[in-house]
Design brief:
The protein has about 300 residues and is an alpha+beta fold. It folds into 3 domains: about 120 residues, Immunoglobulins (Immunoglobulin-like, Sandwich), CATH 2.60.40.10; about 90 residues, Immunoglobulins (Immunoglobulin-like); about 70 residues, no CATH class. The chain is built from 4 helices and 22 strands. The chain has a 6-stranded mixed sheet with strand order 4-13-12-7-8-9, with no helix packed on it. A hairpin with a 5-residue loop joins strand 1 and strand 2. The chain starts with 7 loop residues before the first strand and ends with a strand. It is a single-pass type I membrane protein. It comes from Oryzias latipes (Japanese rice fish). This is Ig-like domain-containing protein. InterPro entries: BTN3A2-like_Ig-C (IPR053896), Ig-like_dom (IPR007110), Ig-like_dom_sf (IPR036179), Ig-like_fold (IPR013783), Ig_sub (IPR003599), Ig_V-set (IPR013106), T-cell_Activation_Regulation (IPR051713).
């Protein structure tokens, strides 16, 4: 970076040479910019002088190769994919030279140098981009695979997709912090984001009914939480059975059987009434010879209808 009173020449492959001297131009850039992972990020730089004719603007990332990302010289001469000027200042005469980064990635984090040449002077400023990603809603699962005799089970809380490195904390139903009793691991994924995992041992005879796992960002700001009751049945099949039980005990479950039973009773009553009317008052109904039906010769059964 060129300091005041120093001349620096920046030469690029396409033949642009920029000399920066005295830094007399009133160029103002935000010292730090925060961008969200996967979204657009704005690096703010404006000229605080009226009626200025912009001749050259160069944006580049400070680093190993320091390749130019955006170059303007009377028109846009270079524009790396994913980077662009916020607005066409060369048409609107608005001295807003800010750069927009599309689909911000972790590798976009760092320092950027904006170099400007105008008819009123030259200047350059460095601005920093910090990339932030919000952690996903944490999840909890319970495992009873333990290697310690006095540990009944473990609660495992996980959250991923965040940046910078955050923290998982445990609380019981009385809001008592049990984080010191847990063990947290941090893994950096291929896209540069972090995955957090925390194991909380539940001792044999534990009387706490519920636990809450909360995820915090790098500054200690809560970004999500999940509630869990270890003693509740969490088997998916049990959940299905509970739903079936609700259906079986619902009012609709009793209506159909009652209707069917009522219909059968009415039918039987009608049949009995019909038979009574079709027989004489003293007609007897005899069962076949017991010798044929039962093989018992001692009994002969006769049923008589009553008036």
């Amino acid at each position: 970076m060129a300091s005041s009173g120093t001349i620096v020449c920046i030469i690029y492959a396409f033949g642009i040479t920029v000399g920066v001297a005295n830094s007399s131009l009133k160029l103002e850039c935000d010292e730090t910019n925060t961008g969200q992972f996967g979204q657009q990020s704005l690096l703010k730089c404006v000229i605080k002088q009226p009626a200025v004719k912009v001749r050259v603007v160069i944006w580049r990332k400070v680093g190993e190769n320091e390749e130019a990302l955006l170059v303007f010289e009377d028109t846009v001469k270079k524009q790396v994919q994913g980077f662009r000027f916020v607005e066409p200042f060369w048409i609107t005469n608005n001295p807003d030279l800010s750069m927009l980064i599309n689909n911000t990635k972790m590798e976009d984090e760092g320092e950027y140098l904006c170099t400007v040449v105008t008819d009123a002077g030259e200047g350059e400023k460095i601005t920093q981009l910090k990339v932030k990603a919000r952690y996903n809603q944490p999840t909890i699962k319970q495992t009873k695979k333990t290697k310690t005799s006095n540990v009944a089970s473990y609660l495992i809380c996980e959250s991923f997709g965040g940046y910078p490195e955050g923290e998982l904390r445990w609380f019981d139903e009385h809001d008592k912090d049990w984080t010191k009793s847990s063990n947290m691991t941090v893994k950096k994924t291929d896209n540069g984001l972090f995955k957090l995992s925390s194991w909380l041992p539940l001792m044999s005879g534990s009387t706490y009914e519920s636990y809450t796992c909360k995820v915090y960002d790098g500054k200690g700001v809560e970004e999500g939480k999940v509630f869990f009751e270890p003693n509740k049945q969490t088997d998916p099949e049990a959940s299905v059975n509970n739903e079936e039980l609700k259906k079986e005990t619902s009012p609709a479950a009793f209506v159909a059987p009652v209707v069917v039973i009522g219909s059968v009773i009415v039918g039987l009553l009608l049949l009995l009434l019909y038979r009574r009317q079709s027989q004489s008052p003293h007609e007897s109904v005899e069962i076949q010879d017991p010798d044929v039906e039962t093989g018992d010769p001692e009994y002969e059964v006769e049923y008589k209808n009553q008036p």
